Amino acid sequence: MVTAQTQTPLTRRVVGENIWLSRAANEQASLDAVAQLTAHDIRPEVLASEQAVGQAMLEELEAIARAKDGDIVMILLGGRGAQAMHRLLGERAQRGRDELITRLHVFTQDALAPLRMASNLSFVRDFERLLGDAFFAQVKSFTPMQTDAPDLAAELTSYVQKLEAFGGADIFFLGHGPEPEGASHLAYIRPGSGATAADVAGMIPISSSILDHHITKFKAGGSTVTLEDEAECRRATHILTLGPSVILSSKRIVQSIVDASTAPAKRQTFRRALETKIADEPVERARQLDANPGLWIRLHPNVRSLVLPDVLN
């Protein structure tokens, strides 16, 4: 597993219109990092309902709480994938002080920008809607990506530095996003964006298809979206995202895919991510990962993948 290298300063790396914050000194260092990783097979667990997926995700968080003392660093998943877990956590918080919740340092993994933090199409608003005020009143800290900062790259640098100062993620809740030509994204690491194993975060130009997907999944998940919200969202120019380095350095990854009924392309793209043979040769491996970032999860040794039956049909 790649570990956070907080002693190495971040460098800004430009790939086309993409900006990455990297720990690697040069391209060869990035290739060396990806060459050291072992490719793993993922055997998804099929659960009967979205509620069952949410319960399993919560049990993963509880297992970490039992296994370690002190604070827990958690990276939230936006969209449909973790909504059931968020409701369960919100219900716990409403019952009073919860020893698990009070240990949490909570981070988010991606965001559209620029966008007002108060927008109903912000992941933060969706987290607040599902987790509730009582949850955020109890957590040790909550650090969302700031999407209305005047210097987004500087804000993103401060963001990842704070995450690393806490020791990185104990648990990273990930989804799986479909992309054209059978490819996929994790967080919002998109195909062709040039991400490497040493990149901790990035700013990626947005496309109309991503905006369509974002708005559709928020509506499907129950968010109230006004015409003004939608118009503002469509003016966003970038996606802020955590990079492969943060995924790989997380101690535990729990993936959930529950929305193949509303995003049917996930059936094909998830199967491709499971079945692709990852090359051993570093340059070819790097090419594969850039073409299909959904493969990054295969390079982590501690992954649990939770899906509904229709994802594999």
Mean pLDDT: 92
- Report the C-alpha radius of gyration, rounded: 18 Å
The first-level CATH class is given as Alpha Beta
Whole-number tally of structural domains: 1
Q: Report, as a whole number of angstroms, the end-to-end distance.
A: 32 Å
> Largest sheet, order of strands side by side?
3-14-13-8-4-5-7
- The outline comes out as globular
Instruction: Work out the helix count.
Output: 12
* Percent of residues in beta strands: 15-25%
- Percentage of helical residues? 25-40%
CATH architectural arrangement: 3-Layer(aba) Sandwich
H/E element order:
EEHEHEHEEHHEHEEEEHHEHEHHEH
CATH topology: Rossmann fold
Number of strands: 14
Main β-sheet description: 7 strands, parallel
| Class computed from helices, strands and strand pairing | alpha/beta
Model description:
By secondary structure, this protein is an alpha/beta fold. It has one domain: Rossmann fold (3-Layer(aba) Sandwich), CATH 3.40.50. 38% of the residues lie in helices and 19% in strands. The strands form three sheets. Strands 3-14-13-8-4-5-7 form a seven-stranded parallel beta sheet. It has a five-stranded antiparallel beta sheet with strand order 1-2-11-12-6. β4, α3 and β5 form a beta-alpha-beta unit. α1 crosses α11 and α2 crosses α3. The longest helix has 18 residues. The chain starts with 10 loop residues before the first strand and ends with a helix. The N terminus is likely disordered.
